[in-house]
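Objective 1.3, modelling of assemblies. Example input:
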Amino acid sequence: MNRIQKTFSSAKEQGRSVFVAYLTVGCPTPEGTLKAIDKLVEGGADVIELGIPFSDPFADGAVIRSAAYKAIAQGVDMDAVLSVAAEARRRHPETPFVAFGYYNMIFSYGNEKFAGKAAAAGIDAVLAVDLPLEERGELVPVLKKHGLAFIPLIAPNTPMERVRRSAEGMEDGFLYAMTVKGVTGVRGSLPDDVAGRLDAIRRETGMSVVAGFGISSRGQGEALVKGHADGYVIGSAIVKKLCEEGWEKAESLV
Amino acid sequence: MKTHYGIYGGQYVAETLMGPLAELEKAYLESREDAAFRAELESILHDYVGRETPLTHLKRLSAHLGGAQIVLKREDLNHTGAHKVNNTVGQALLARRMGKKRLIAETGAGMHGVATATVAALLGLPCEVYMGAIDVERQAPNVQRMRMLGAKVNPVSEGSATLKDAMNEAIRDWVANCDDTFYVIGTVAGPYPYPQMVRDFQSVIGREARRQMLEKFGRLPDQAIACVGGGSNAIGLFAGFMDDPVKLVGVEAGGKGLASGEHAASINGGRPGVLHGAKTYLLETPQGQIVDTYSVSAGLDYPGVGPEHAYLADTGRAEYSVICDDEAIAAFDMLCRFEGIIPALESSHALAEAIKRAPSLPADAILLVNLSGRGDKDMDNIANYRKAH
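Predicted structure (tokens):
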């Protein structure tokens, strides 16, 4: 079993949900990101998503966009992301890390070079927001060669037949089910049919499923996925605290 | 139908958009086979847009240059003053056919925004246009026109506050509202089927031009020349001559020169990458961040290029040259003074390339230049440029 599989299966044994925490690497600073990872892992985060800042984050809401621009302004690039990952891996040997970003950053770095270095840095999986089923063939085999998983995104409007095809061969990772159509960011309420949708995705694929987009607290995440999915992602709420509100004073990031 | 052009093109979008793109592809392919749809499109292009647009032989300018004959395809004479409307009429009809209740668009110089606002009014659909805050400033007359036509203009002030950021914001709107909203993309960029669909709607330019060349001159041109930002007017022209022995020439915006770094020449100065749903040539940093582009012409100020152009460049079927600000302005002046036509600064780039090439060619050679738009919108830009130089 890889780190991801171990994490999901031990959470299942303990009868609890997997808490996936997203942060943008380099916001407020690369050193701040490392401290935040420490704090998140201590506070119970099971999986860390390391956001790769990109100049044109068209799938993100205002909070994560602003974090990306701040990180880029400090010169945070793929090499910086990989060194943060390597140091975080040294500090947290068991926590799965997912490199999360837009495909151009990977493509521009070189798929092969990226996969090799990401694996060496201790990254477990990659989620490329703009690499759907039709296009992922140019990256996934390269990742697999280096022992990295690929995390498919499932949208609220993805037909079930397509959900099954998206899940094929991805058992070394998990499925990321978006709760809403739209960009990342905290929302007042989530659609009523999320639970049924998560049930169906899990039933159809037999894979571990996490719900993401619009979840702002662990309480909300737990309540949403209990009995319907294996975990939940908190992103914008963490990034907001981290980059905008002076997180060092905060008791916890979530 | 093909989703890729060689290694370029594709559908590099978030999963949420794959459904809407499939729905769009289906509607688009069906509309192509539907005689009633085509008839309505043609009747609007004829009765409302004012097609067909004429060819104009630039006799005085050609004689002055002393070489090849320069002939213009007059897309500037379309209603709204540019080729953009050919595409927005088509997409808006498609939106109505699909039962969409709302149009959104991105715009740079504002011509596509105006053309979208225009057809939205024509079909009675609400319209919102995303425009970089910097472009809102430098293209104020077009902002007024859009508002006059009933569209809501949303300035986008983040990132570089220009066309690419406007497109990001339009994509965000579309992802959230894809059930009832149609995204009218203004150029042959974006995910499949947009590059193919926009090419189809713009290919009326090349189809007409080819027939008109044969009628008027009894022959095809030696070269077909058009400016390339995203590249829709160029693809529209090229489409008519793709299988002919006609040299196809795309002209990119060289701004202050390739060496200065301040330009918008994605093919000549960029490398392959992935942006806004397609793999294509991009202007980016060595680290993969998309860079701010520069051109005196706002309509060419985009860090990417339509994927078919990337493919035509690699295969050599089309060649892509670079014209800098000063050359475009000089061509602008010449067309005004010699022929009484005020061209858009975008189109002035294509004309400048023809002016460069004409003197070394024989007098019976013909350079067909797509005059993609008129220059009324550029009066302030020209004045500002002259002040600064």
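The interface with chain A takes residues 3, 10-16, 18-20, 158-159, 164-165, 167-168, 171-172, 175-176, 178-179, 272-277, 279, 282, 284, 287-291 of chain B (CB under 8 Å).
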